[in-house]
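Below: protein 1.
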Amino acid sequence: MGRLRAMREPLKYVQGRNALNKFYDEMSYMGKRWLFVCSNSGYKACHDKIEASFGDHDDYRRYEIFSGISSNGEIKKMEDIVKTDNIDVVVAIGGGSAVDTAKATAYYTGKHIVIVPTVAATDAPCTGLSVIYNDDHSFDKYLFYPTNPDAVMVDCNVIANAPVHFLVSGMGDALGTYFEGRASIRTESSSLEGTGITRAGQALAKLCYETLRQYGKQAIEACKLHAVTPALEYIIEANVYLSGVGADNVNCAAAHSFYNGVTSVGCKHADHGDCVALGTLVQLVLEGAPKEEFDDVQSFCLEVGLPVTLEQIGITTEEQVRTIAENACVPGETIHNLAGDVQPCEMFDAIMQADALGKLALAR
């Protein structure tokens, strides 16, 4: 029997201007008792709209501000609330850590899960996994779920009022989706979820990149004005849905391995999306991509303010680059989805070339 190909995505994805005003209308089929796991800023941005959506309905609602990291202790605390308060639905309100905490809580207690992202900085809302940390903030594990979230609801006004750098970071994370997916398809690698890759997954990943190229700059200008325009809506969809569902159903490759390598250097302000964007340029060098394609991706990064050099992500020494290259190539890293078994020396050279081409572009 050949390998099974599969598609996974949230059961329901809702996005739009003031979408949270319709929270109850869209989600009430899941239950009557709600636990909202909120970041501080998420609570402020969403609480009033969600409360108003319930109108006269007497559903039980509990809002919990969580600690800021998806740690085992925090998840256990939320699990206990679900049990003692007899909760039906867990709702995440916030960024990646709130999302990961709520997903794990719902999974361990067998409850429905709704994701309300307050920034479009990563594709975490739509995916079927969480990053879990120990209570001392060290990395513990990736927790993979049998399904993706029940529902994702994105209020475009909330995203438009978040700092612009989150939107740009989300574009960096989304930028890798098509190129990493394409590399995985070339080598017949598994998807992120461990099955064969579908044409539908490929199509979403490609549409993600096309959307970024066509609307990225416009969306940034809209976000600066807190304006909800079609361009901003398209980029929110690309960052949250196309990138998340795309990546889940294709796979990662060198761009995400580069990010993991950078984190091993202990670089404090190395943002996930920034590193994935620069890592995408590194991957194109590794693949021997033609000048036109490399220039196209690099010019997109320059246009929207994503990094094209190492210095822009805080990497300043050759020794750091060697450490990044070593750690990006450890067994089990997604870089091995590339054709040919990439060695640390090859990764090092590719990073240096991408950086040199970035410096040239900035000097123009």
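Below: protein 2.
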Amino acid sequence: MPRFDTSAVHAGRDDFRDLCVHAPPLDLSTTYPVDDLATGTASFDALVAGEAEAGNPIYARLHNPTVARTERAIAELEGTAACVAFGSGMAALTAVLMERRQHGDHVLVV
């Protein structure tokens, strides 16, 4: 097991050798090409089901490789199985509220 200071440098970079890069690539795309309907459908189903990865990212709001790399790095640093990154504090708060509510609950927010 690497030490924390080593993990802080290398976390989330396990695919760098396969990508032939030394710095994390920033994926700025919003949509991704899909080779065929079967691949697109399988990828969409996997992402909607909550899978962390799919054969094709399809759309950046469902999956973004840059955000996924950040989530893997934070999970490794925190010693947990997974991490979820949000675009804003309100998005994070909404996710927590929606997860914690039960059938019949009412949530009133400003």
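The CA atoms of residues 70 and 97 lie 23 Å apart.
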